[in-house]
Each structure stands twice: as structure tokens, then as C-alpha cells.
Amino acid sequence: MANMGKVGEPNVRVPMKTLGQKEFLDLLITQMRNQDPLKPMSDTEFIAQMAQFSNLEQTKSMQTDIAKLRSGQSSQYALGLIGQEVIVNTGANDPAKGIVTGIQIKDGEPIITVGDKTYTLDSITAVRQAAAN
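and the corresponding C-alpha cells:
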């Protein structure tokens, strides 16, 4: 009899896409338990595997930090646009033009408000000092 989740639905195994620290250590322990006792894993192999894993973890951490830094810089840039006149590529033949009146953050990305519409920073094609009235 298959394992059932909800009534009448079998459980589905979803494969993991990444190998985390716990999974790596579980594999390492399994490898050590099942190694040939006459030809055990050498210390250098073990240390090399641990160093590779440590390097991978540091790289992942660095990627996360860089993404946070980029997000912060984009937000600061967007804040500096408030009160500035921008030209925005709308995808049509006639680009939009107006004063940035506000920003909002959606999914970690700043969105500028021009008039009653919102645009992403990558749609800006020009920025000018707003004319004083």
C-alpha cells in the first residue's frame, strides 16, 4: 500500500536541487561507514572534501551578501530620483516623461512612480534635473 498524503492521493517525492551542509555530512558519514577497511579514505581526501564544501558555503554566503548590496544600492539610487525628471521606455514608440514622485519596493526591487504609473529602474533612459517652477 502506497503512502497517502490527503485521502486518495499518493505522496510524491520531490528531489532536492541543492546539497546542503547536513546532506553533505550525511553522505560523508555514509562513505566512511561503507569504505573498504583495507583501503580506508586517506586524511588528505577527507580534508580536501571538507575544504571544497567550506569553499562552496562561503561562495553561497558571498552571493547572498552581494545581492543584498545591489538591492541597497538600487534603493538608494531610486531615492535620489525623487523630484527628478525621467524619460522611461514604455515599450511603445512614445516614451513616457515625468517627475518621479515616489518609490516602492516590490520583491526587493525599487519601482519608481511617475504620474499615476510605476516603472522599473531598468526602463529609465534619461534623468534630468527637474525645472524649477
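(Above: one complete record from the training split.) The radius of gyration is 27 Å.
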